[in-house]
Design brief:
heterodimer, A: mainly beta, 7-stranded mixed sheet, 11 strands, B: mainly beta, 6-stranded mixed sheet, 5-stranded antiparallel sheet
Chain lengths: ~110, ~110
Amino acid sequence: NAGVTQTPKFQVLKTGQSMTLQCAQDMNHEYMSWYRQDPGMGLRLIHYSVGAGITDQGEVPNGYNVSRSTTEDFPLRLLSAAPSQTSVYFCASSYRLGGTEAFFGQGTRLTVV
Amino acid sequence: KNQVEQSPQSLIILEGKNCTLQCNYTVSPFSNLRWYKQDTGRGPVSLTIMTFSENTKSNGRYTATLDADTKQSSLHITASQLSDSASYICVVSARVGNNDMRFGAGTRLTVKP
């Protein structure tokens, strides 16, 4: 029972480089989201999707792109990495909105130098 | 200002002792409140969920309380174990829109032998 799978677990980028963080879930959840977690702060929503083909911005979307071509996959793209994007990134999925339990991946620790 | 405030920021206790973590929120209109446990290097995992009408809910050695009038919740851990060492995150869901979860910054609990 895989749940939510994120890859890679660790990544180091140089300023200006681009990359894609992968997220896949096998629970047939409609709602998927990306968060970043920084020291001393709560998780902050970057982008979310309420179903295939539908995405929207969260609290901190600048510098990130997403797409949702299938129910299972929700990749997060960093267009031109900046040191301010150094963080731990979590992908989550849930059955629906309205405060249902969110299932999180194991996270990607990204360092931008 | 964060809509979900947790205290203390960090806590160290001896194995076998009890502890209580606090969560105050201003999120409105309130839908539910969850406590998540996040082990180091892992994603958060849901422990309990509290709805408006619930005052107390237990999950093994974890007991959550909710006072919706004062907008406070607590998580009580009984007979702590080394495996309880983790961050505990309070998440409050609102009943509006798609971006409905508000995360506290968490309390870092360390249980020492």
